[in-house]
Write a structure and sequence with these properties.
46% helix, single chain, six-stranded mixed beta sheet, alpha/beta, 6 strands
Amino acid sequence: MDKRDFKTTIKESLNERTPNILNNIKSSSQFRIPVKEKKALSSYFSFKKLSYSLATVFILVLIVTLAFSSQSAIPVVASTITVDINPSIEITLDDEDNVINVTAINSDGEEIINRNIKFRGLSLDTAIEILIEEAYNRGFIVDTSEENIILISVDSKNSEIKERVEAQLERKIANEVKRYTAAVRVIKESGLDVTPAELKTLKDTAKENGITVAKLMKINRIILLDSTYTLDDLKNLRIKELYRIEYLLLNPTTDNDSDDPRNNDNPGNDDTPGSNDTPGSNHSSGTSVIPHSRYEVPVNIS
């Protein structure tokens, strides 16, 4: 027997003596091949439905959160100010007297609102400094012997806020104008004893004519004193000119016809009443704050 035959014999002998364990396991009655279970179709759809539901809930929560956060970011108007020189400006403030918005009521007002300045968030004092400086630069406030007359009005549902803002506004405007000229008078428009319906009519009329309610009230008083005047006659006049007309009507003289602005191409430039002549004012010179006398308010004005 050669070497090759010997190796073959040994290999065959080992194969015969080595048991086939795998075949024995497979032939056993206990042997089972596990079957992969198929997911039920209903389970798949239930999981998908749950995913959609969770996504919907998340989106709703996100929308509600954004809605509340944006709502809280919108400031609430606590007071509304109007300032009339002839430029007419409306300023809305929050409860901390910071500016929410500055709006021009007429074309002159548009001129003094610097579009490069973001007024929102500024303090009332800072906003007034900017507006008075622009009014001076554009010639609405002049440094002459004539008084610069400014009409102000403050509206607020809270009486404490109204009084505080009114006092601050009077003081700030007077002090700021005195940086440019010593001759300044601030006239404070008193509150209105009118019904809500009448107030709405006044606001609508003022808006239609491009003036503030405060200026409309000044015009109302003039018309009550002299019914020959009309709203169209007076609405484009400066506050100084309206004040002069009212003064002359309250203090009639033989020369009143020559002072009528309807007969004068440049009314209000001469003989403007001095501080000693102001109805209801005891101030002798310099800056004065004059509350208007109260007249009945006519709602329908022609």
